[in-house]
Amino acid sequence: MTVKKLGLRQRYEHMTRGLDWETTYQKMDDVFPYDSFEGIKIKDWSAWEDPFRLTMDTYWKFQAEKERKLYAVLDAFAQNNGQTNLSDGRYVNVVKLFLTGISPEEYQAHRGFAFTGRHLRGAGARVAAQMQSLDELRHLQTQVHTISHYNKFFDGISEFPHMHDRVWYLSVPKSFFDDARSAGPFEFMIAIGFAFEYLLTNLLFVPFMSGAAYNGDMSTVTFGFSAQSDESRHMTLGIEVIKFLLEQHPDNLPIVQKWVDKWFWRGHRLLGLVAMMMDYMLPKKVMSWKEAWDIYFVEAGGSLFQDLERYGLKMPKYADIATEEAEHISHQNWAVFYQYTHAAAFHTWMPDKEHLDWLSAKYPNTFDKYYRPRWELWAEMEKEGKRFYNMALPQLCQTCQIPMAYTEPGNPAAICFRATQFQGETYHFCSDGCKDIFDGEPEKYVQAWMPVQQIFQGNCGGATVPDVLAWYNMNAGADNMDYTGSPDEKIWKEWHPDADVARKAV
Amino acid sequence: MTHQLTIEPLGECIEVEDGQTILDACLRAGIYLPYACGHGLCGTCKVEAREGEVDHGDASPFALMDFERVEGKTLACCARMMSDVTIEADIDEEPDQRRITVRDFAGRVEALEDLTHDVKGVRLGLGGGRIDFQAGQYVNLTLPGVHGTRAFSIANPPSEDGYVDLQIRRVPGGQGTAYIHEVLKPGDAVALSGPYGRFFIRKSRGGPLLFMAGGTGVSSPRSMILDLLAAGYRDPIMLVHGVRTRADLYGEAEFSALAVEHSNFRYIPALSSEPQASGWTGERGFVHDVAARLFDGLFEGWSAYLCGPPPMIEACVNTLMRGRLFEKYIFTERFLTAKDGTEKPKSPLFKKI
Fold it and tell me: Which of A62, A75, A228, B253 has the fewest CB atoms below 10 angstroms from its CB?
């Protein structure tokens, strides 16, 4: 009788068998202390369909070749002074936002998946989480290396790890990942594996990577390709996680639904930074945030939740509100950063006429009515030498930590305020979504490190703006303020003496 | 110009057009390969080309590494075939699937029978030839003056291999079925080829089996059930056959007799639009509703075989999943007519249901 050759899947199973042995020196519950308190019930870990099916030796081989290719492109970019071929000097602010706001979260994801990989009982889930943990570390490293080239010429980049733990708006992504990492391993998998890496990932990466491609940033495009080849495994893992939990036990459904609601809303709030980047910061536009939201959430997310409905899982709570907000969120965020440009580590500007017309065309229902007049007023004030700065510290939402600048559903003329009393204190929220999240676990969110409150409590270097900026390691006059008049603009004009003339002609 | 593509470990062999990608050819032939981005960036659709030559197309150097190209890997979504090719894909092997070569047969109409007012029973003799097939598979018919082929499930069990029985409903406005209902007569020659399809019983899995059939979708289950009972299958077998009214029901006498003869077989005809006053004492409602009632909504532990029009399949899958029977235990054969367009876009959550 001939021995049949093993299939790909069987070969993999053979290579990884026995990784989930029953411990005998210690009780299994002592070895895996974190996988039961969340209430998730797993009847059979062997039903986990490992979506990666990659052994470690192959993994290293893959990643080594990806690195070689990426670094070859980075070298070429540096040798050819690729930074001078960008669409405009303003574009670099996108890179700054990415490095300060996204890259540190890759590191957080790395640590989160390392923890999860250690604390889940199933071998397949552990191997998958371990590999994703290494991927995330690689993503951080390649992003830092890519962007380090820009650091030679532009401001606001060098202090990114220091700023991540201190700067007011960077507390938004930081608190998002802190929240996920301080949850149990299953919630982390739904939060980051499913909601972030699957449901919302296209809204995060596609805008940045297409934006880079449209604006001549070939180095960022290349790390994007390099990361995307890992991303497919991450997305498959996200899908597997949610199917697995829902199929294992009917009691898991309400728990998973609560997490999906929570992390959809948290993700939506976090993505507001990407929305602003797409609509305001890319000199050459890819598509509007509203268009991206319609394609990647309304359509793709819609068909996903239609399929998930078979498990009884419903569309995330407030998905309709989030879709309504897609008309507003980029404008409201840019308004915040414009007003607080003195405290931000990237530059801001008022859109020129061509840009305003583009926004009017992309947002016919809202832009001319609610935002264009304000931008034109602020531009007018700039001309008169009365550039508007908001010198009051903003009230922050206790959950997402974003200044309370969002408007009421159905009424873009009124700021949305929500509040909850807990243990004799009042806590404030930007939305029903954020309030619900707090109300679900108030003991957790009262511990949040709130940047504004910390300044008022005297924990941030002093009481004045210069004191706080110094504590942020922000190089005042270079890292912050408007693009016009910045050292960034100066160096760009040295490379492109005709650029200014071209802009004025518009 | 076309090339032959063999897909291991399934052993399926399909024709691929010049310039068509391997992924496109597989998906069109009903063979699911894992894929995601569809344009060479993510690497989800990586397969091994064991024999033959492929052009890697636009596969990203980050998604398909140089060392993998040397090892013969390729991305199905970008790969175009330069010769006949055998690929090995990361898909589950089916221990119960037999590899049967598709053959052409010169069939001849042996008998025609009106099963109902709009369903014709057609027996095609094979002129002394024999067809080897698995219960649940189908054949393609080439009809005179009708463009393309028409697929019909084989209703007889594989033990009766000298002919194929087909149950063909007249599709309003349908060219192929109009020909069969109006023109076809005993003695006519009909060219057919087969067997096709991967709808077959996972016997090695054992356990109770639920068949959910809509209209002429009962033809495959008939073949499967006759085959199972003849082989002495011991676990429970249940058939829920849904049609609109009493006038649309056929096969009742045969299935009822089988249920009497075999204590593990249960037959449930269900009528969805039968007038209340008709005296019908059997089940009323759609297949999925009737099944949910009979099972008290819980299907855990069963394997389900679904055969019928797409809306019926969709409703049954939803009911089964709500009853905690998941993709791994649900097998479907969708009856599409030539008029059915492509289905609505789906998320990658499910592969085959």
Answer: B253
Band of residue A5 on the pLDDT scale cut at 50, 70, 90: low
Alpha-carbon gap: A379 to the closest alpha carbon of chain B (Å): 42
On the question of pLDDT at B284 being above 80, the answer is: yes
Examine residue A1 and state whether it is found in any structural domain, yes or no. Answer: no
**Cβ distance B186 to B177 under 8 Å?**
no
ipTM of the complex as predicted: 0.80
Which one, of A410, A411, A415, lies nearest residue A430 by Cα? Answer: A415
Contact B41 A225 (CB under 8 A): yes
Contact B322 A310 (CB under 8 A): yes
In a domain? residue B351: no
Q: Is the pLDDT of residue B341 over 70?
A: no
Question: What is the pLDDT, as a whole number, of residue A234?
Answer: 86
In a domain, A3, yes or no: no
The answer on B329 and B247 residing in a single domain is yes
B contact set with A (CB within 8 A) = 8-9, 34, 36-37, 41-44, 48, 60-63, 65-67, 88-93, 317-318, 321-322, 324, 326, 344-350
Phi and psi (nearest 5°) for B113?
-145, 135
Per-residue pLDDT, A397: 98
**Would residue B307 count as lying in a domain?**
yes
Q: Is residue B344 part of a domain?
A: no
User: Which residue has better confidence, B232 or A56?
Assistant: B232
User: For A223-279, how does the pLDDT look when each residue is reduced to its tens digit (9 = 90+)?
Assistant: 888 887 788 788 888 899 999 999 999 999 999 999 999 999 999 999 999 999 999
Instruction: Print burial letters for A455-491: b (CB count within 10 Å at least 16), e (below 16).
Output: beeeebeeeebeebbebbbbbeeebbbbbeebebbeb
Residues 6+ apart with CB under 8 A from B336: B310
Nearest CA in chain A to B66: A65
Which domain-ending residue is among B88, B111, B129?
Answer: B88
Q: Average of pLDDT values for B190-219? A: 93
Structural domain harbouring A146: 8-16+24-504
pTM of the model: 0.89
Q: Is residue B216 part of a domain?
A: yes
Contact with chain B for residue A235, Cβ under 8 A = yes
How many folded domains does chain A comprise? 1
Rounded CA gap, B249 and B233, in Å?
A: 26
Determine the structural domain holding residue B308 and report its residue range.
204-334
**B294, amino acid identity:** L
- Candidates A239, A237, A228; CA nearest to A53 is A237
| B208 and B118 assigned to the same domain | no
C-alpha to C-alpha distances, B43 to A366, A436, B64, nearest whole angstrom: 40, 39, 7
The verdict on residue A335 lying in a domain is yes
Q: How far is A467 from chain B (nearest CA, A)?
A: 46
**Tell me, what CATH number does A288's domain have?**
1.10.620.20
Distance between CA atoms of residues B298 and B313, nearest Å = 18
At B218-258, the pLDDT tens digits run 999 999 999 999 999 999 999 999 999 999 999 999 999 99
- CB A364: neighbour CB atoms within 10 A? 11
Domain of B75, CATH number, reads: 3.10.20.30
- Domain match, B219 and B118 both: no
Across the A/B interface, how many CB contacts are shorter than 8 Å?
A: 80
CA distance A494 to chain B (A): 36
In sequence order, the β-bridge partners of residue B105 are B192
Tell me, what CATH number does B275's domain have? 3.40.50.80
- As for how many domains chain B has, the answer is 3
